[in-house]
Amino acid sequence: MIFDPTPCTLGEGPLWHPDRQSLFWFDIVNRRLFERPLDGARREWTFPDMVSAAGIVDPDRLIVASSRSLSLLDLRDGSAEVLVPLEADNPVTRSNDGRADPQGGFWIGTMGLNAEPGAGSIWRYYRGELRRLFPAITITNAICFSPEGDLAHFADTDRATIWQVWLDRDGWPLGEPRVFIDLTAEGLNPDGAVIDAEGGLWSAQWGASRVARHDRQGRFDRAIELPARHVSCPAFGGPALDRLFATSARQGLNDPRPADGCTFVADAGLRGQAEHRVLIG
Fold this sequence. Notes:
This protein is an all-beta fold. Helix content is 0%, strand content 55%. It has no helices and 24 strands.
């Protein structure tokens, strides 16, 4: 089912805001952020740089990742305050996938504008500090966290692999990441991901027209098929957190169909986690 028919060149970063009972999402290439409640009109904001992911701070503010910074966006008047630069001295990269963690941090991935090999990194912003966690990633994606807050996940779409890493009590990684899901043999491309309340990981699979669920052991469980070729990222939402939203993209398609680039909603059959809040200071 199409939730919003606005065709995005590169739809990304869906985020359900429970205080506002609305979904936020981005069109990275066209520098836009959208908001839409389940029953209501769409709003949008336009930015000077590419924007890709957000985290909830409070009912009226989001932390927004752009190609140059992390900023605090006031939804009431559209004003934005830069919190910290994000690879601002590197013209080759932009932000991509991101999500708030259970400890109040915000993880954000970067990548090359043309997916240059190894140009991206995974960063974490926590209480005013931005720290690089994992370098040399080509297409950062699938940042998501276990319900217990003890595991983080991230992907390199270029390597068809999703990793997981243990976290300490403050949300910083412990030890080296380990391979959680390897889709190389299947020829599938893991894009954005989210974890449900039971610990299952739902990954959009670029080019496969679906969002696939894997259980806590990394075993394939089920998939929701969608009418867009490039599904980019899922998010749980709705009053009961039992609706699965997903963005999609028209990027790279010479003959886009009407549903390509739209934002979708489907019955997930189980509940998701509520999105965590970002601690600014």
